[in-house]
Design goal:
The complex is a heterodimer. By secondary structure, chain A is mainly alpha-helical. In chain A, strands 1-2 form a two-stranded antiparallel sheet. Helix content of chain A is 78%, strand content 2%. Chain A is globular and about 75 Å long. Chain A has a domain of 217 residues. In chain A, helix 1 packs antiparallel against helix 4, helix 2 packs antiparallel against helix 3 and helix 5 packs antiparallel against helix 10. Chain B starts with 6 loop residues before the first helix and ends with a helix. Chain B contains 22 helices and 2 strands. Chain B has one domain. The chains are: A mainly alpha, B mainly alpha. At the A-B interface, helix 17, helix 18 and helix 20 of A face strand 1, helix 5, helix 6 and helix 7 of B.
Chain lengths: 498, 527
């Protein structure tokens, strides 16, 4: 066995161990350790990615080398390693971009706690990506929830506490549903590892026994994940949680946390249930409807906001809607489009949050759109980041958002049912109009000169923020102009799921 | 000559404009010379390229499988690029004098020049991807131009424009992806590129209608025309060049491209899709003219006239014959020339005499002779009086409609004639008021203000006030504001464009043969 096969496991373990270690460190040391760990995990993921790319096939890694029904496994394929790397990358640059605000928003003595949460979050995200065992998946869902709660709460203001409580309640409801679903599935299949579960489920479908419990289980799982990832009717916790947290938390929560759950859902569809069965029990149609609703209503809510950070948060609801709409199409092309959109959205949304915080000085009163007028002349790089992010969300060519829109539209044309096709296409167009209404409106607002010198901000701008914004701009352009290899990797990765 | 030479006129203004925006020269002279040099050089390049006609394609970017950014020059590109290249230097010259008293001139001219490059990008696009990309960019690059005044109205109008335009593009996008999925290629090929469409005809026709209405937003088709009259708050060089030529013609041009070069007329001719789209065009023809007759604000009146005239083009396009395409291009050229001239005349009156409404034009003819002689010529041409160019293009549209010979095309022809009558009403009112001796304009305003009710009054007053304030701020208070009736002389940089344009309008009407033969060849795919 090549030593490199251990790397994904190390990348999970490393942040998990460094979390407790951080508790005895000072804030500064904890920060350094955390940055190092995120970088290292990213590098390990790249190595694993290159390895999988060269060997051309996924491998299963047994913890402690126990054979299948007993041991705990992680599974390493092209898609997993790619996602792991991308998550580490986004997390690193979100932390870098938000560092200034982290230092201001969080009391000195609590800083190391913040980085403990960050380490645990990374560990759980990577575990959600790699896991081959549904129960492990559940455990890390919980760890993810707890650490995300910490990230929301850490600023310690009243609104944050309220947001954290809301998040906690909704999220635990979601976890509860997932747990019930897994119990039912364990009951009818007798397994928790993905492959044996899948075999058992195929048999169940053939014999037509336990068909109803299976449907219920799948439904509960989807609803659970939908609550946790803020699909349309379950999104009430999101705007507070994303809108009022400190900069780095907002960026990471919006671009990564919900995506970890969604990735687990993709694995659940492909590796546990199978897309044919998903279609047979019509879960895809349900997701399609809610996805479309999210695309439209998320944006409608975003338009009504006067607070721009809440506006961006609501736009996440719409983007999550896109992702579920892709699942709902239930074709390979739709799934690829959704996975690509996860990347595009992460790259755009984290940049938007960092830019907005730089423009508004990380304060709530300045995030109001009236206060933001002319802010572009206070911090030009951040304004550029905001503009590029907005244009990407609207789907202007050359940017990541355009490419994912193209993939979605192509996927929609590939769907058998003409109604579904036209609904998806029209929803895509309407959602684009709504996106343009608030994002371009905000962009114009920010670039409207006031005629007077803007007030200088209280938070000193550092080159570090600029570097982060530039990195995200670069990612947006790379995903927009060179999407071909990424597309192929996603395709291969999905093929390896079977 | 390699096709890569196309990139030169495309990027020259973009880079030149960007440089102007970044460097922001303090001296006005330097800025003006830069703008004129860049614009003239670009036009010279375009002229050279049109003469030499480089073959092949210039590929610059591969976005994803089958989505590439590439340029070429075919007959249609020649027509649009030629029109734009002819008008841009004239427009820049006019703009320099018009913007004399405004702030933020550097930024304005930076974007004005960049828009030139992007419009050429639409003309030179070799496939749908490229065209869509430049189409979106055109929307974005014109935002600062429309917002230039930074008054509340300008911001509101800009927001409306952006929403309409990006929204339209979002629906056009569906058509674009349909071609990506169902076409052999996304390149433009006369006759269409659809292949393997058995069982998908109805769906594709729905998509075609969506795409035409999507691109039709920029071409101001009826339910989506609202942004164009509002947009007339922008400075006249923008309204004239962009909202009568570059932006709106880009919409019409895009519709020609998807109809004749992507979906293909054989697939569409005789189907419900054709008649639906034609219905929209025919209705807009009359609707735009009616609204223009009602409108009392000169620039908005011309904007409604543009709405109507753009639908002449779309009606010709939707005939889906060679003759229809020829007529469409003829009217693109003719309307571009005539409408920019009319706007420039009104702009000159606005900026030199501070008069904006129709009733204020009483007796202005004698006080601004050149301007109103040119206005009369261009106006008569727009009505369609021989021997001017407007007659020629309308004649061709009529001919194409008769040659089609269906009930729908005859309805269109009737609408065309009705609209021409209305055109005479709204154009001649201004002409008559200007040339016949009239009362003092100021007295008239007071009467009108009493007569009208509600919004119009408020609007009039606010416009008057803001104009006065801005005039006060920028002028030496004594000379203009004493009576509100002083007229500043029209400088050569305004006079020359006006005279040039009027000459072209007449000359092209009289010697229309070569141009129309060229257009017919383009429609037949010979060039």
């Amino acid at each position: 066995m090549d030593f490199i096969r251990n790397f994904p496991f190390f990348s999970i373990l490393l942040p998990m161990i460094s979390g407790p270690i951080s508790s005895v460190m000072s804030g500064k040391q904890a920060k350094r350790l955390n940055f190092a760990v995120v970088t290292l995990s990213g590098l390990l993921s790249v190595a694993a990615f290159v390895y999988v790319l060269n060997t051309g096939e996924a491998f299963t890694y047994r913890m402690g080398a126990f054979p299948a029904p007993f041991g705990n496994e992680i599974r390493v394929g092209l898609l997993e390693t790619m996602m792991a790397f991308f998550f580490c990358f986004v997390m690193l640059f979100s932390l870098i971009g938000g560092y200034r605000f982290t230092a201001v928003d969080i009391p000195e003595e609590k800083q190391n706690l913040y980085y403990i949460m960050m380490n645990l979050l990374l560990s759980s995200l990577l575990a959600l990506i790699y896991t081959n065992d549904m129960f492990t998946g559940y455990v890390f869902i919980e760890i993810n929830t707890i650490s995300a709660c910490g990230l929301i709460m850490v600023r310690g203001w009243g609104r944050n506490l309220l947001a954290a409580i809301k998040y906690m309640i909704m999220s635990l409801l979601g976890s509860g549903l997932v747990l019930i679903s897994l119990s039912i599935l364990y009951g009818i299949t007798g397994h928790l590892l993905m492959e044996p579960m899948h075999e058992a489920i195929v048999q169940i479908m053939e014999q037509q026994t336990y068909r109803e419990p299976l449907t219920v289980a799948v439904g509960l799982f989807c609803v659970g994940i939908a609550i946790k990832s803020a699909l349309f009717p379950f999104h009430s916790w999101l705007p507070d949680a994303y809108g009022y947290s400190t900069c780095a938390s907002s960026a990471i929560l919006s671009s990564l946390v919900s995506k970890g759950y969604i990735f687990l859902l993709i694995k659940f569809f492909y590796r546990v249930i199978g897309t044919d069965i998903i279609h047979a029990i019509q879960v895809d149609d349900v997701l399609f409807v809610f996805g479309i609703a999210g695309m439209v209503f998320g944006s409608v809510s975003a338009i009504q906001q006067t607070d721009v950070s809440r506006m961006i948060a609501f736009s996440s609801v719409a983007q999550i809607g896109y992702i579920y709409m892709g699942f709902g199409l239930n074709t390979e092309a739709g799934m690829i489009a959704s996975i690509f959109h996860i990347l595009a959205h992460a790259a755009g949304k984290s940049m938007l949050f960092i830019s907005l915080n730089s423009l508004s000085d990380g304060t709530w009163e300045y995030a109001n759109y009236r206060k933001l007028r002319g802010a572009a002349y206070r911090h030009r790089i951040a304004a550029l980041g905001f503009a590029i992010g907005s244009l990407s969300m609207v789907g202007i060519p050359l940017l990541a958002g355009f490419t994912s829109k193209v993939y979605y539209a192509k996927a929609a044309f590939g769907v058998g049912s003409t109604y579904k096709m036209l609904i998806a296409l029209v929803a895509l167009a309407i959602s684009t109009i709504l996106n343009a209404m608030y994002f371009i409106g905000q962009m114009i607002n920010i670039y409207t000169p006031l005629g007077v010198e803007p007030e200088p901000g209280t938070v000193k701008h550092s080159n570090v923020t600029r570097v982060a914004v530039f990195m995200f701009i670069a990612v947006n352009f790379v995903l927009g102009m060179g999407s071909e290899p990424v597309f192929r990797w996603i395709q291969t990765g999905l093929a390896q799921f079977r | 000559m390699s096709a890569y030479w196309l990139l030169l006129p495309l990027f020259l203004p973009i880079i030149g404009g960007a440089a102007l925006g970044i460097i922001k020269p303090h001296s006005r002279r330097v800025m003006e010379i830069t703008v004129m040099t860049v614009t003239l050089l670009t036009s010279a390049c375009v002229a050279l390229i049109l003469a030499v006609r480089p073959d092949g394609e210039a590929m610059i970017l591969q976005l994803a499988e089958s989505l590439s950014v590439k340029f070429f020059l075919d007959g249609s590109s020649c027509v649009f690029a030629g029109l734009v290249a002819l008008l841009w230097p004239i427009a820049s010259l006019y703009a320099i004098e018009y913007m004399e008293t405004e702030d933020h001139r550097n930024t304005f001219f930076a974007y004005y020049t960049m828009t030139y490059g992007i419009t050429l990008g639409i003309a030179f696009s070799a496939n749908l991807m490229t065209m869509y990309m430049f189409y979106e960019m055109l929307t974005l690059v014109t935002i600062p131009l429309m917002m230039h005044g930074l008054k509340f109205k300008a911001v509101v109008a800009t927001r409306k424009y952006v929403r309409y335009s990006l929204g339209g593009a979002a629906f056009a996008f569906i058509g674009f992806i349909a071609i990506v999925v169902f076409g052999e290629t996304i390149d433009f090929r006369l006759g269409g590129v659809l292949a393997d469409i058995a069982g998908k005809r109805t769906m594709l026709r729905i998509v075609y209608v969506m795409a035409v209405l999507g691109f039709g937003v920029k071409a101001a088709v009826f339910p989506f025309h609202g942004w164009l009259p509002s947009a007339s708050v922008a400075p006249t060089p923008v309204t004239a060049l962009l909202h009568a030529v570059a932006v709106v013609k880009a919409g019409a041009f895009a519709i020609i491209r998807i109809t004749y070069y992507s979906f293909g007329t054989t697939f569409l001719r005789g189907s419900w899709a054709q008649y639906t789209v034609m219905g929209f065009a025919v209705f807009t023809m009359v609707y735009g003219s009616v609204k223009a007759v009602k409108e009392q604000h000169c620039k908005r009146r011309l904007a409604y006239s543009t709405v109507s005239n753009l639908s002449y083009i779309l009606f010709a396009v939707t005939l889906m014959t060679e003759a229809g395409m020829t007529a469409a291009y003829a009217h693109i050229l003719a309307h571009g020339l005539m409408k920019i001239t009319l706007f420039y005349c009104i702009g000159a009156v606005n900026v030199k005499a501070h008069r904006h409404y129709v009733w204020e034009m009483d007796g202005m003819g004698r006080r601004m002779k050149t301007v109103f002689i040119v206005y009369t010529i261009a106006g008569l041409s727009l009505i369609g009086i021989p021997p001017m160019i407007g007659f020629v293009s309308k004649w061709y549209i009529g001919n194409a409609a008769v040659a089609q010979g269906t009930v729908y095309s005859y309805i269109g022809l009737a609408a065309l004639i009705l609209s021409a009558l209305l055109t005479a009403a709204y154009i001649l009112e201004v002409v008559v008021r200007a040339w016949l001796p009239g009362e003092q304009a100021t007295a008239k305003v007071a009467v009108k203000l009493q007569d009208n009710s509600g919004e119009q009054v408020a609007e009039t007053v606010s416009t008057e006030n803001t104009e006065m304030q801005s005039a006060q701020a920028t002028e030496n208070a004594s000379d203009v504001q004493s009576e509100g009736d002083e007229i500043r002389p029209v400088g050569w940089r305004m006079r020359l464009p006006l005279v040039l344009l009027a000459t072209i309008v007449v000359a092209m009407g009289i010697w229309s043969g070569p141009v129309l033969r060229f257009l017919a060849d383009v429609a037949a795919g010979l060039r």
